[in-house]
Amino acid sequence: MQQERHERARGDDAGANAHEDCPASQARLFDDATLKVSEQWDRACDDLDEDIASGYVRILQELIASNCADPAIGKVVRPGLLGWSDAVRSLAWRAERELRAFPFSSEELGALIGSAFLDAESTYLLGLEKKGVRVRQSLRRIGDLILVKEGDSSNR
């Protein structure tokens, strides 16, 4: 799954509609119900690190920026971002149901999570991590909080 996304980002897939598989592959990120919410969170953080290392994030951010000058690009990029948003909202719904951990609806929590991951991408690309803005590290710490909450939930 990750390799497919990286190949598309590098342009290894010559198909003009290669982006159409992106929402499905992103949704599969959280489909494994045998994993705890904290494990799924860790997987999302791992995928972010892999996407940065592969160059996928740089290309995606360039496409997002290009949308300002060419709205047709937005038509290509938007489905992938909406797929990610749907997957994150699904995880937030599961966390809300299983952990009752947050004073947010799954839609609100999903929006915050999606924005945090996009910000982590931008922060990295702008070199702000080297200046002490540690969004990816903070995302990992949220996983620690989820793990603690899972422990609390199992004691009920």
Structure characterization notes:
This protein has 156 residues and is mainly alpha-helical. It has one domain. It contains seven helices and no strands. Helix 4 crosses helix 5. The chain starts with a helix and ends with a helix. 22% of the residues are buried. The N terminus is likely disordered.
Summarize the structure.
The protein has 156 residues and is mainly alpha-helical. It has helices spanning 2-10, 22-28, 37-54, 56-66, 71-99, 106-125, 135-154.
Any chance you could write out the topology, listing elements then pairs?
Elements: H1 2-10, H2 22-28, H3 37-54, H4 56-66, H5 71-99, H6 106-125, H7 135-154
Quaternary state of this entry equals single chain
Instruction: Give me the secondary-structure category.
Output: mainly alpha
- Rg is 16 Å
What is the average of the pLDDT values? 80
Strand proportion: under 5%
Give me the count of strands.
Answer: 0
Number of helices: 7
Total number of distinct structural domains: 1
Kindly report how far apart the N and C termini lie. Answer: 36 Å
Overall geometric form? globular
Low-confidence stretches: 1-23
State the share of residues found in helices, binned by percent. over 70%
Largest sheet: none
Q: What series of H and E elements makes up the topology?
A: HHHHHHH
Which tags fit this structure?
156 residues; mainly alpha; globular; disordered N terminus
